[in-house]
Amino acid sequence: MRKQAGALGAALPHDSAPLHVTGRAPYVDDLKLPGDALHLAFGLSTVAHAEIEALDLSAVRAAPGVVLVLTAQDFDHVPDVSPVAGDEPLLADGTVHYLGQAVFLVAATSHLAARKAARLAKVTYRERPAILTVEEALAAGSRFETGPITWARGDLSTGFAAAKTVVEGEMEVGGQEHFYLEGQVAAAIPTEDGVQVMASTQHPTEIQHKVAHALHLPMAAVRVEMRRMGGGFGGKESQGNALAVACAVVASRTGRPAKMRYDRDDDMMITGKRHDLKIRYRAGCDAQGRITAMEVVHLMRCGWSQDLSLAVADRAMLHADNAYFIPNIRIESHRLKTNTQSATAYRGFGGPQGIVGMERIIDHLAHATGRDPVAIMQANFYAERPGGSPAKASPGVSPPGPQDISAKLKGEVQTTQYGMEVEDSVSGRLVGKLLADCDYHARKAAIAEWNAGSPVLKRGIAVTPVKFGISFTLTFLNQAGALVHVYQDGSVHLSHGGTEMGQGLNQKVAQVVAEVFGLSARDIQITAADTGKVPNTSATAASSGSDLNGKAAEAAALTIRARMAEFLAGKYGVAADTVRFKGGEVLVAGESHAFARVAEWVWQARISLSSTGFYATPKITWDRVRGQGRPFLYFAYGAAVTEVVIDTLTGENRILRTDILHDCGRSLNPALDIGQVEGAYVQGAGWLTTEELVWDAKGRLATHAPSTYKIPAVSDRPAIFNVALWTEPNQEDTVGKSKAVGEPPFNLGISALMALSHALSFCGTAYPALDAPATAERVLMAVERVRHG
Amino acid sequence: MKSIQVSTTINGDPVEFLCTPDEPLLDVLRNRLGLTGAKEGCGTGDCGACSVTVNGRLVCSCLVLGVEAEGAQIETIEGMAQGETLHPLQRHFIEKAALQCGVCTPGILVAAKSLLEKNASPTDEEVRYWLAGNLCRCTGYDKIIEAVQSAAAEMRGEV
C-alpha cells in the first residue's frame, strides 16, 4: 500500500473538480476578449466534389457586422492546416473535395453575424463525380499510398490445410463522431512580436507550427496556451488547426483579437471522425479451436485528405490479432480516398477497428464449431511469459482455469505478426478471473434457459478480451518535456507538455511530482500547457499522456530534489542519500525541517530550484515499411462481459449488465482510472450500437446533430455496471509502474456487439453476421437473416 | 434589431439587461452577463449543457429567449453554492469523481437539483430518465448516478 496520502496511487478527484461543479472553470469560449474582438465563421461547400466556377461574396461582405471576408485568392500561398501531408488548404483553392469544406472565411463583430453572413454566398459549382464509398474508391483506384499495405507471417495455405473449420465473411463497421461536449474553438490575440493563441487542442505544438507557417513567422513568435478542453477523444489532435490558423490570420491582418468556434452542426459537417471500414475475412481453426490461419482485408474510408489515416490504418493492422497468437496470418490494408470528411484520430486510433474484426472472427468460428467463444479465445491467447509474471499475483487472483489451455505454450515467448515479443500477456488469467467473478458460465446457461421460454425477447452474453499496444507508432513522437519550479516559499509550479481534456492528466502528473518532494498533490500548482514553457511537445494522444509527461515531470522534480539533498548533505555533513522528503518535511541528520524552509535555504545558497525534465520512451523500434519491430513499450490488457436483451419484433435492445476487469498496472489514481474505463466502455459500446453516421447519395452527412446522431445517454448505461482494476504492476519501467488507460478500455465496448450477436443466435441457425453499429434496424434485419438462413 | 430592456432575477439578485428579441437566454447569460457556467453543447436543446431553471422549471437556455426572463426567477449553476459552501450535489460530484471534462457538469447539476426538489427519494431509474436529456461524453454516467443518490441521501438526513 502507498503511504503518502495525496501522492501516487491516491484516488484523488480531478484537480479542476471544484471549478467544474461551480461553473467557474474557464474554457476557451469562456475567456473574455477585448471588445473589438472579431468572430469568425467558414462558408462551407454544399457539394461533395466540384470546381468552383464563380464565387459571389458581395452579399456576405455587405451583411451587418462583417469586417473581413477572405478566400483562397487573398493569399499568395493558402495556409495549410494538415498535420502531415500538406494537403489541406485552409480555404478551398479552386476545387472542393467534400460537402462541408471551408470555401471562404468571414470575420464579423459577433458570432451570429459571422454565421448569418456566411450563408449569403452565391457559389457556382461545376460538379465532378464524387467518390463516397469504399467500393467506389476501390473501383476508381482512389487511395493514399500507391497500393494496399500487406503484412504477413507464416504460410496461409499450410494454415488453412490444417484447419478443420473455416469461416469467411464481410463486416461493415461504422465511423464515430467524437461529440466532445465543447466544440472546436480557438482564439488569437496579436502581440508585439507575433501572436498568442488559446486553442482547445490536444496538440499545442502543432497549432504553433501551423500558425507560424501561415503567418511566415518563426515558431518562437507564436505562443500557444491550452488550459483545458471540454473533451477531445482524438478529435482535437489535428482538427483544430483550421480554427487556430483562421484566427491568427485575421488577428494578423486586422490587428484585432479573433475567436472562432464551430456550432455543433458545423462541427459535425466539417471535422473528421473515426474511420469507418469494411473488413473481409477468412479464418480457420483446428479441432481444438486453435486458429491455424487468418486473412483479413481492411477497407478504410479515409476521406478527402490524408490527415493521420496512414498511422490509423497501421494501428488497425497492428491490432488485427487482438490478444491471440496466430501462426499464419495476412493483413491487407487499403487506405481509400473519398469525397467525405477527412477521417481522423479517435480514441484507439484504428486499434478498435482491428480488434473488432478479430473478435468477429472468434464469434464466427465459435458459431461454426458450436463452441463457446471463450473456448476459442482460451485456445489462442498469447501465452504468459515463461515462469509467469515476475510480479506477484494480485490478491484473490485465481490460477488459470481448467479450460485455459494457453498455459501449455509456456516455455516460449510468442511474437506478434509484426515480430514483437509478447512478454507481458495476462489475458488467460485476467479473463479467467473475470469470468469467475461475474459467474459467466452459469449466467450463460441461465440465459439459454430463459430464452427457451421467451419467444419475443432474447438475451445474450459475451466476453471481449483486449490487448492494446502502448506507444506512438511514429517512434519519434515518444518524447516529452516538463518544467518544474520550486519557489522560495516552498510552493511548486508544474508545467508539462501534456494537455488536459478531462482525463485528469494534470492531477496524475501533480501526484508524481508530489511523491518526489514528499508533498501532497494540492501543494503542486498545475498550470496550462504553454509552448513558451515546454517546447516541441507531442500530441496528448495514444494514451501516452501520463506515461510520457509523468516521467518527464518526475525527472525534473528529481533533479531539484537532488540539489536540495546535496545542499543539506553539505550543511549537515551527511550523505545526500540519507536525506528524506516525506509528509511536507525534509528529514536530515535526525532533524526535521519544513519543505518550505529548506527551499528558502537552498535559494539563499544560490542554488537553482528550477529544472526541466525530459523523457524518451526506451526500447521501441519500428520499421513501418516491413511491418517489423517493437512499436510498443508494453501492452495494456482488459476484458469485459456484457449481457444484453433484444426485442425480436422491433430490434430494440438494451445493455443489462456489464462486468469489467481492466489492467492499469499500478494505478496512479484509481478514481481517475476507473472513470476512464467506464467512460471508454460506454463510448465503445455507443460506437457499435447507437451511433450511426449516415451520408446521403450526394455525400451530405445527414446525422449532424444530437437530434439524429445518438451518443449513449444516462438511460443507456448498463443497469448493473461492475468495474474493477487488475493491479499487477507494469513489467516495464513506467512512471510508478502504471499503465496507460485512455484508449485500451474503449475496446471493451465490443462485448456489447458480440452479446447482441449471441442473443440473435437464439433466433435460428444461420450466423447473425451483425454489422456495426447494431442499430435497432440492423438487429431486426439480422433477426430475419438468422431465422430464414 | 432594436434591443429590449429586461428586468429579471438571477440567483436571487435583481438584474437588468438589454438584448435583442431573437437572442437566446444562453447568449444573454454567457455574453452579456458573464455567467459562462452554462455551456452551448448543441444549440438545439438536445444535450442539456445549458440547463438553467426559469421560475423553478428546468429548461435548456438555448431554447428560451432572453426576453422571456422578464419578471422571472432564473437559477444558474453560479447560484448553486452558498458563498463558499457547496451544495451537497456539488460536493458529491467531486467526491465520487462524477465528472471529467466538466462541460456537461453544470447542466447536470442544475437538472439533478431540480429533480431532487421534486422528488427527494428518486430510484436509480428515475434519476436515469430525468437526466436522459443531459449528455455526457466522458464518464459513462455511472458515477453521476452514484453522486446524485448519495447527495439525495445526505439531503434526506440519512448520512
From TrEMBL, chain A:
Its EC number is 1.17.1.4. Pfam families: Ald_Xan_dh_C (PF01315), MoCoBD_1 (PF02738), MoCoBD_2 (PF20256). One of its GO terms (molecular function) is molybdenum ion binding. InterPro entries: Ald_Oxase/Xan_DH_a/b, Ald_Oxase/Xan_DH_a/b_sf, Ald_Oxase/xanthine_DH-like, AldOxase/xan_DH_MoCoBD1, AldOxase/xan_DH_MoCoBD2, AldOxase/xan_DH_Mopterin-bd_sf, Xanthine_DH_Mopterin-bd_su. Residues 22-129 form the Aldehyde oxidase/xanthine dehydrogenase a/b hammerhead domain. NCBIfam families: xanthine_xdhB. This is Xanthine dehydrogenase molybdopterin binding subunit. It comes from Stagnihabitans tardus. The gene is xdhB.
UniProtKB/TrEMBL annotation, chain B:
Pfam families: Fer2 (PF00111), Fer2_2 (PF01799). One of its GO terms (molecular function) is metal ion binding. Keywords: 2Fe-2S, Iron, Iron-sulfur, Metal-binding, Oxidoreductase. Gene3D superfamilies: 3.10.20.30, [2Fe-2S]-binding domain (1.10.150.120). This is 2Fe-2S iron-sulfur cluster binding domain-containing protein. It comes from the Bacteria. It comes from Stagnihabitans tardus. The lineage of its organism: Bacteria, Pseudomonadati, Pseudomonadota, Alphaproteobacteria, Rhodobacterales. Residues 4-80 form the 2Fe-2S ferredoxin-type domain. InterPro entries: 2Fe-2S-bd (IPR002888), 2Fe-2S-bd_dom_sf (IPR036884), 2Fe-2S_ferredoxin-like_sf (IPR036010), 2Fe-2S_ferredoxin-type (IPR001041), 2Fe2S_fd_BS (IPR006058), Beta-grasp_dom_sf (IPR012675), Diverse_Oxidoreductases (IPR051452). PROSITE patterns: 2FE2S_FER_1, 2FE2S_FER_2.
